[in-house]
Amino acid sequence: MKVMKFGGTSVGSADRMRDVANLIQNGDSKIVVLSAMSGTTNKLVEIAETLYQNKNENANALIDALHDNYKQVVESLYNTSDKKKQANELIDHHFDNIRAYTQDLFTIHEERAVLAQGELLSTALFQFFLEEQGITSVLLPALNFMKIDENEEPDAAYIAKNIKTELEKYPDTKLFITQGYICRNAFGEIDNLKRGGSDYSASLIGAAVGASEIQIWTDIDGMHNNDPRIVKNTRPIAELSFDEAAELAYFGAKILHPSSVLPAKQQNIPVRLLNTMKPEAHGTIIKSETAGGGIKAVAAKDGITAIKIKSGRMLLAYGFLRSVFEVFERYKTPIDMITTSEVAVSLTIDNNKFLNEIVAELKEFGQVETDLDQTIICVVGDFIAEKSGAGLRIFESLKNIPLRMISYGGSKNNITLLINTKDKVEALTKLNEGIF
């Protein structure tokens, strides 16, 4: 069995849904995981924010506008009056539920229920379309098997047990449709996977059913060797290891979220990144081992803050770094990069929510400097296999760009650099010229 995930742009219109229906009809056993139609989740977030502000009249206007969009999709997608009637009744029901939240107190529990509507709508509309086309399939409600625990982490054992129970109800069915992103929490309430969304759902489902392959279909033909939005003449990477893909995803490659690689890696299930608009393209395959070493790709992560703590107390003092890290732990703020010298430690964070509090505590250890508007450049590949020369090519390419920090040796898969964000475009362009 394969798991095929289609993102919001892949199901973003009636025509795109028809394309997806064509892509999944090859007779193989598969579970198809769908995101919300493109733009829907952003609209639902806007509705939720308006409801939090008690601007119910504005919220109703936003709800009506989104409802009208879905009515147009229904009109375009279906050919028969019966299916149009069935689909309109469905969307009316969902939007009536959303409107009901304008009549009562709006809390985080209601917000999660509102945000779930996008996936519930896209999968139901797609299932209706398959039925109209005479394609045998079953809609599996993700809320029946997808669950997170009290730490908001996926409950893998629960997921595996319950999705197996769902599948066993339909022993002769080969095609299943389900929702990405949404789940239940430890209290049985509607919730979501947050990090990685539908990609994470696909990977968790693939791991739970022992899939032969997990396919992530988007609007780009695989993971590119540089940011195609900034740099000209980038190319898709044919193969990546799980570790290389995770590094690229974490440090800025938007096509994949780093969390979504882990369940597939743990079960050694290949992940293939494909383009719905160009299904014939090879895309990128991610697996345990890949052929060849050397530099494979570059990614950039913006919104970084660098913090430098300089202290004479650090000299030969054990426990100093632990004390520093405990400050970040107390404020639940992850650290991206770290470099040290005998009298100073520099590190980076990508969340400034508690920056003032963190700096205030760090000043107990010594002098603290902060630099905002920084960008992490991550050069990924198999540098052990290359043995030598990679660093020279990287630094020669960046010889005219000031480097704030350099990190190498944390893994065999990346060399990480910190630069000012104003130098990002030039840095990515020069790296593309110098190493590919």
UniProtKB/TrEMBL annotation:
GO terms for molecular function: aspartate kinase activity; ATP binding. It comes from Pontibacter burrus. Belongs to the aspartokinase family. Substrate binds at residues 41, 119. SUPFAM superfamilies: ACT-like (SSF55021), Carbamate kinase-like (SSF53633). ATP binds at residues 5-8, 218-219, 229. It catalyses: L-aspartate + ATP = 4-phospho-L-aspartate + ADP. Pathway: Amino-acid biosynthesis; L-lysine biosynthesis via DAP pathway; (S)-tetrahydrodipicolinate from L-aspartate: step 1/4; Amino-acid biosynthesis; L-threonine biosynthesis; L-threonine from L-aspartate: step 1/5; Amino-acid biosynthesis; L-methionine biosynthesis via de novo pathway; L-homoserine from L-aspartate: step 1/3. Coiled coil: none annotated. It comes from the Bacteria. Residues 377-433 form the Aspartokinase ACT domain. Residues 2-275 form the Aspartate/glutamate/uridylate kinase domain. One of its GO terms (cellular component) is cytosol. It holds the Pfam family AA_kinase. The keyword ATP-binding applies. PANTHER family: ASPARTATE KINASE, ASPARTOKINASE. This is Aspartokinase. Its EC number is 2.7.2.4. Keywords: Amino-acid biosynthesis, ATP-binding, Kinase, Nucleotide-binding, Transferase. GO terms for biological process: homoserine biosynthetic process; lysine biosynthetic process via diaminopimelate; threonine biosynthetic process. InterPro entries: AceGlu_kinase-like_sf, ACT-like_dom_sf, ACT_Aspartokinase, Asp/Glu/Uridylate_kinase, Asp_kin_monofn, Asp_kinase, Aspartate_kinase_CS.
